[in-house]
């Protein structure tokens, strides 16, 4: 039995004015940000893990970075975004938040960022960027996570597309969905990670490094 949207919403706390403004901005400008049920679940799991450092791949307008920083008062977040206009909005929104001093925005393609410019390790990595590139993101940045660290990957469900036969997926999105399915099969069988799929938001994959 599926839960109703109203029932799910009853468990979501109210957000501050800045976050509400960002949610409206994202909706009006078609900027993808994490669904409320997804970010609330992610933050609760992060509170349990209690990382001191997080690398985020895919800043968008800075919404999830701010949400994670608010949930983890002792955590520093480095976030990477390649879209110039989104970087600007993210910096402006983050500057207005009370967690600005703990969030660093890096402008650039995450697949091209020089690893030497980043800290040597992160307790967690959150991947929420180009879905067809998840394998490449994971392979590049997983080395920065030590044993016991966690990689979180959003949008694994892709609004239901991942659950369809590939012939039912719109042609323009088939390569992305194939890549996503290849990645999910690969990581679930990977001996170095204990991975689990959580059906919250648009689908959250959590990979614990052994």
UniProtKB/TrEMBL annotation:
What does the entry list as the binding residues for Mg(2+)? Answer: 128, 154-155
PROSITE patterns of this UniProt entry?
A: SAM_OMT_I
Domain of life per record = Bacteria
- Catalytic activity annotation: 5-hydroxyuridine(34) in tRNA + S-adenosyl-L-methionine = 5-methoxyuridine(34) in tRNA + S-adenosyl-L-homocysteine + H(+)
UniProt keywords (A-Z) are: Magnesium, Metal-binding, Methyltransferase, S-adenosyl-L-methionine, Transferase, tRNA processing
Supply the EC number(s).
2.1.1.-
InterPro entries from the entry? Answer: Cation-dep_OMT, SAM-dependent_MTases_sf, SAM_O-MeTrfase, TrmR_methyltr
Q: Which GO terms describe its biological process?
A: methylation
Report residues binding S-adenosyl-L-methionine: 34, 64, 81, 109-110, 128
| Pfam families reported for this sequence | Methyltransf_3
Write down the SUPFAM superfamilies for this protein, in alphabetical order: S-adenosyl-L-methionine-dependent methyltransferases (SSF53335)
GO MF assignments: methyltransferase activity
The UniProt entry, under CDD domains, shows: AdoMet_MTases
HAMAP family for this protein: TrmR_methyltr
Q: What does this protein's UniProt record list under function?
A: Catalyzes the methylation of 5-hydroxyuridine (ho5U) to form 5-methoxyuridine (mo5U) at position 34 in tRNAs.
Subunit info here reads: Homodimer.
Q: Which PANTHER family match?
A: CAFFEOYL-COA O-METHYLTRANSFERASE 3-RELATED, O-METHYLTRANSFERASE-RELATED
Q: What is stated as this protein's family in its record? A: Belongs to the class I-like SAM-binding methyltransferase superfamily. Cation-dependent O-methyltransferase family.
Q: What is this protein called?
A: tRNA 5-hydroxyuridine methyltransferase
Q: Which organism is it from?
A: Solibacillus kalamii
